[in-house]
Amino acid sequence: MGASGFLGSHVTRQLVARGDDVRVLLRRTSSTRGIDDLDVERHYGDIVDDGAVRSAMADRDVVFYCVVDTRAMLADPAPLFSTNVDGLRRVLDHAVDADLDRFVFLSTICTIAVSPDGTPVTEADPFTLADRCGAYVRTRLAAEDLVLDAVEGRGLPGVVMCVSNTYGPGDWQPTPHGEVVARAAAGRMRFYARGAAAEVVGIEDAAAALLLAAEHGRPGERYIVSESYMSLREILCTAAQETGARPPSVAVPMAMLYAGAYAGSALKAMLPKKVTPYLDVVRLLDLTSPADHTKAERELGWHPSPTSEAIRRAARFYVSAGVPATR
């Protein structure tokens, strides 16, 4: 489920490559460029279509749930809750009855704690940003709770994969973080946020981690799927250098971004469904810390490659495919 998305398409590709019998659930309106060349069984429907979901899960051993609305900049967060929480809740009702071996759930690094002193965090560290995380992260926290509650109380063989920012070829949409890299690869990024950094991982490695979770993941466990911690400047310069583009050179202080975001907060309070939550976005850039993926290495046998290589492949893909100019 979610096979038309960036990570979902790569999971699908790897399953097909190893010879698995793959069925995908798609909306008829979804762009399927990432999987059109694959021999998969297609079922059509939405995650709120109970009949389609039951049919898609019938006789399957594993469900990879890669459905997520990542639009953290939506002025009205209602669609985020509708997809990321309410839609998932309905799918879980059917998954519990489907006699699955595993339900591999795509979550996000944003649900992992942020270290107060810069030391790497793990899956066991308690989340500490509940009052500052924004609507998108709240939906992802709620989604994880739904999955873990279904594991504990209803016997779902669910595994939660906390995946960081993914980079690599095939990002046709593109993803929000991918679009920034696409612009850098095209020489259209002049500014970057000073001090911004993020956990990152190559898309092929992230997909491989989900496949490994289906085989070795322990139900009820969370796994950090991230290779390294990179500054935004390093990410953008890596992309620009790969294509020979001019790298971004103007550093915008984080304090300036916060000032602009707070200035818009009063307007956001008056028009909550009309004004972009810039403060949430700035916090996503700022409130990060290194993460330790040792658990995924130890329990899943996951060994990622340097993400810088995936960023270079992404840069070449964006330029050759005309992304995001073709959107």
UniProtKB/TrEMBL annotation:
Which residue range or ranges hold the NAD-dependent epimerase/dehydratase domain?
1-225
A single GO molecular-function term is: aldehyde dehydrogenase (NAD+) activity
* Record organism: Mycolicibacterium gilvum
Q: Single GO cellular component annotation? A: cytoplasm
Q: Where is the signal peptide?
A: none
Name by which UniProt lists this protein: Nucleoside-diphosphate-sugar epimerase
For this protein, the record's PANTHER family field holds: NAD(P)-BINDING DOMAIN-CONTAINING PROTEIN-RELATED, PROTEIN YEEZ
Q: Name one Pfam family in it.
A: Epimerase
Q: Which InterPro entries match?
A: Epimerase_deHydtase (IPR001509), NAD(P)-bd_dom_sf (IPR036291), NAD(P)-dependent_oxidoreduct (IPR051783)
